[in-house]
Amino acid sequence: MAVEEEGLRVFQSVKIKIGEAKNLPTYPGPNKMRDCYCTVNLDREEVFRTKIVEKSLCPFYGEDFYCEIPRSFRHLSFYIFDRDVFRRDSIIGKVAIQKEDLPKYHNRDTWFQLQHVDADSEVQGKVHLELRLSEVITDTGVVCHKLATRILECQGLPIVNGQCDPYATVTLAGPYRSEAKKTKVKKKTNNPQFDEVFYFEVTRPCSYSRKSHFDFEEEDVDKLEIRVDLWNASNLKFGDEFLGELRVPLNVLRQSSSYEAWYFLQPRDNGSKSLKPGDLGSLRLNVVYTEDHVFSSDYYSPLRDLLLRSADVEPVSASAAHVLGEVCREKQEAAIPLVRFFLHYGRVVPFISAIANAEVQRTQDPNTIFRGNSLTSKCIDETMKLAGMHYLHVTLKPTIEEICQSHKSCEIDPVKLKDGENLENNMENLRQYVDRIFNVIIKSGVSCPTVMCDIFFSLREAAAKRFQDDLDVRYTAVSSFIFLRFFAPAILSPNLFQLTPHHTDPQTSRTLTLISKTIQTLGSLSKSKSASFKESYMAAFYEFFNEQKYADAVKNFLDLISSSGRRDPKSIEQPILLKEGFMIKRAQGRKRFGMKNFKKRWFRLTNHEFTYQKSKGDQPLYSIPIENILAVERLEEESFKMKNMFQVIQPERALYIQANNCVEAKAWIDILTKVSQCNKKRLTVYHPSAYLNGHWLCCRASSDTAPGCSPCTGGLPANIQLDIDGDRETERIYSLFNSYMSKLEKMQEACGSRSVYDGPEQEEYSTFIIDDPQETYKTLKQVVAGVGALEQEHAQYKRDKFKKTKYGSQEHPIGDKSFQSYIRQQSETSTHSI
């Protein structure tokens, strides 16, 4: 979800690898071990949770998490919890990274010390405050000054223990006084509208005679401050929870008698000494935070056109896309945006065919074809991940789930056998699993996505033409991807391919490792298969599969997925599970009041229907055919005083649903919108609020069939797998070129060197693949010009924004450290320019 900023869209995303924790404090009981899990939070909102690692003080998680961030945030936080069966889980410690500090740790494995969690430091949200100082004439004609403090509203307060009933206290504090007042409690909202005014007398009249109450007659206004504390009203015996505070010195009224601004809530300094951070252990993380600032499409025309010509450039090594792969530090870095870009514009097959053919021509040994981490192999890997994910799920997920649930022992290494285990039984269990997975793979050829088949066809043709004497190369060229880089890794690490929610337990992980090794060898079609295993027990086990029928089945499968005239039978489309999970839904019956109408249900979405049931595996309680979904939109919080709600609009009524967090809500809205995008009766307008008490809360229309009052959000592509924003990918490619500008210049020097000097090459230029120096130089010149033009547009946008933006506005409240840093950078840039 992009944030619109005056013709520019801002996308935020984060990719996190949660590695392991070490040296956690021991449990005070006799066992001393802990059952720990880790959560990922945007400020205080949990968006991801790892599995629980039991009985460990150094738990290994090894879990990856990616999400698009749909809102602004100040901290990316990680909390380590200790599970407690009888009480609420306790927090051991946290890592909180400020948004502006995320670039420091970009894509680096970093150990972070866990910090103590203090309730007074856990703050989130912002406050709109207005101050006004005015003169008041008393009945006796004496002039005194009154301070009017107006609390207008708050936004983004945290939800504590499932609820938020906020109120504010307003205190005028100084060296000799402290006067506090309190707002009303606002029930069930984390965006309260207070709009309350409090009056304080800040200047005493000189004629005031009761001096015993005051140390001096005229108070020094500069020494006074207004403090606003936000609290969550709690019915618990522990008292109200602190949500944050702000302090405003009254000297802000020196220039004007009125002052109005937004403030970020800040933690309270309670003066307590924190313990040494080393006492709590540490957590290993790898965080990649990306923020894309995307202009309208016409800004990218020169660079986009240059990239789209890449497949037709001769030689392809002189193309803009290939140049990006040459200058990036890692090929994967270039492959991700390139593949998404070419998929969006329907040019991925010609581009990959061109770079694959060039790589085949450079390959001398057919046994090493496509075995390196080249731009070709990384681009094909990325294409398979994007286009083949649903194919992978349909093929493998049922069997993988059964293996995870059955926990059959499959250990065949005699050294690792546990007491009571039988080697022959284990080998039979493993053989049955391998057979099942092998069979579902070779029978899945007809379901392989067309774009993958077209790429495999080009690989097969290029390899067969280059190595005409090797009859098997047309198979190994394809199997090196579909088996070695697609099916085998998914079996080995199913959580990385969303086949399982978390890492599997050690026993299941070992079983999947053995299956993956066997499937990889079956698919490789190597001539000496038993010799391909380092372990003697694997070679012995493989004898079960050392039959010609397995090799024939693999070849038939590879023939099918790499044939150009392949047809997909679509007469019976199998249901594809797209997403599932627990959410809270509002009853659709006649009852319209009370929390009893909200119930937790297991939701399940396929390409055929959207259903919910009491628990996973139960019979559906309600089903919505996909063709009956007329729109999927967010529901305003005012409807039920609940966050993260959305509505699935049907012909008769709307189904109101609450997701667990903002990331989950966005994911459900996106996938439901995509799968129903082609419905003929989709709505163009909708009601952003609910129909309650005989009228729509948004437009006050009384009829429940009244047409909507707001336009539906923009349509999305109907293709579920390839929902890609072309301009965003072009912006990412520009960012990569811009960050590697020094390497582009080095490559230009290398082209010049090769054009005029035919002797031994300088070492610094030898890493570049340059087949035609003149063509490559021409492309490099165009790339540098296109990147330079976009850089100027970004710089101009920043200058314009710097002039227009007000510190203390709703978009950039006082206390916004990222904006303060931005102001410093712009000031330095302006000074340097002058």
TrEMBL record:
Which Gene Ontology terms cover its molecular function?
A: GTPase activator activity; zinc ion binding
Q: Which residues form a coiled coil?
A: none
Quote the protein name from its UniProt record.
Ras GTPase-activating protein 3
Q: Give the matching InterPro entries.
A: C2_dom, C2_domain_sf, PH-like_dom_sf, PH_domain, Ras_GTPase, RASA3_PH, RasGAP_CS, RasGAP_dom
Question: Which Gene Ontology BP annotations are present?
Answer: intracellular signal transduction; negative regulation of Ras protein signal transduction; response to stress
Which keywords appear in this protein's UniProt record, sorted alphabetically? Acetylation, GTPase activation, Metal-binding, Phosphoprotein, Repeat, Zinc, Zinc-finger
Gene name per UniProt: RASA3
- Where the record annotates domain Ras-GAP, the positions are 330-524
Q: Where is the C2 domain?
A: 1-112, 123-263
Organism expressing this protein natively? Odobenus rosmarus divergens (Pacific walrus)
Matching Pfam families: BTK, C2, PH, RasGAP
- Enumerate the spans annotated as PH domain: 576-677
